[in-house]
Amino acid sequence: MSNYVLEVINQVKEKNSGETQFIQAVDEVLSSIAPYVKEHEEEFKSLALLERIVEPERIISFRIPWMDDSGKVIVNRGFRVQFNGSIGPYKGGLRFHPTVNQSIMKFLGFEQIFKNALTGFPIGGGKGGSDFDPKGKSDNEIMRFCQSFMTELQKHIGQDIDVPAGDIGVGAREIGYLFGQYRRIKNDYEAGVLTGKGLEYGGSLARKEATGYGLIYFMEEMLKANTLSLKNKTVTISGSGNVAIYACEKAQNYGAKVIAMSDSNGCILDFKGIRLDIVKQIKEVKRGRIKEYLNYVPDAKYLENNSKIPSIYTIKTDIVLPCATENDINLEAAKILVENGLIALGEGANMPTTKDATEYLLSKGILFAPGKAANAGGVAVSALEMSQNSMRYSWTFEEVDRKLEKIMQNIFSSVKNSAEEYNLGTNYVAGANIAGFKKVANAMIAQGII
Ligand code: NDP
Q: Residue with the nearest Cα to atom 21 of ligand 1?
């Protein structure tokens, strides 16, 4: 590996000690782009390019006081990481989850830089969120929290500055409350300031489906390039949120048999094929737990999580789609999946596979669709939402969906081409990192030392 890459990884470890997820993301990206960096080592080093790319342009951290239904005042912490704006306004979701901290925000923002570059749209990398836990909160509590969050965030965003969207715990309801408060404070209908909006006020058709559908479009391209397809394959999907649900829908459209889905407590197993209408009812309407599936399909099984490996990864499957959270698949889980005959893995979530598990899967010849390429459909359709907002015009569902499919095919070819150019075979992880990095690096070089 290039000495320069090693030096910068070590500096990041020293300067950001304790930020494990951020260090992991930097380590994975920088190690895999080493063959490209080696070709340009002197130039990059003289410009401190890697040192600059691993340092966020700005981190905003703020207090979010709000009142719960009983009148108690609660204080949460909010973040916005504006990581890299060299190719366009910062763009990336907001996550509301009790685990949110600066390290998670920085890892997600860092990944987002290269993901956004891969889409081909002029959007920079950012991420934000709060350690607020939306689970079990009333609609009024969610609204009051979102209003307090936006009261501070609005100072730092704008349709040409920074455009947030949803992520874990932030869906259409939350985006609605956030947008309402933004509009009220600014007294300006700036539709392009947030994406993932409702269809009645500037949202795009197919945005809700985009990440999950995009994952499957990417997966099908990857399989096709290796003379395979989704048809008749068994699929397990971790998570049962936005990404998981629409990945399941599209996988079923392609003739795959989805046999398991999960949430943070455990997974449901239905060998007849998951009934997605029931999952949608439980998760999208009732905001319930996946276990409730058994109330509708008594033949199905429920496997509680009770070891270090989420139960879903112990199930025999051809294809696994981790669509829940980071570091869900560790080396142990990866070994079980391989023993059980895994063919391919597609990351719907961000960094759901640990570095050693990724390396192990690649060494075993598993086709591996890395998150920053495979789950880029969400941000790509967010960019299409911004285009529609600027034009004051809406495309049909089919028009957006066709554009999404084309975008995912293009992302796969650039990932594949980069992997081939550096003799990396089917290492699409490195292919994606190199393809994304090249574009951002060139923009940063052109803009001087800033
Ligand atoms: P949702 O909030 O809609 O769903 C999250 C799902 O993951 C839920 O089933 C949740 O279960 C599960 N989950 C969350 N945290 C954990 C945890 N710590 N352990 C186990 N399970 C967990 O989020 P999304 O579907 O939007 O996001 C899922 C992943 O996809 C994230 O990694 C996100 O960053 C990524 N992503 C999302 C995009 C989007 O457009 N929404 C775009 C690109 C990537 P439970 O209800 O039990 O918490």
A: 264
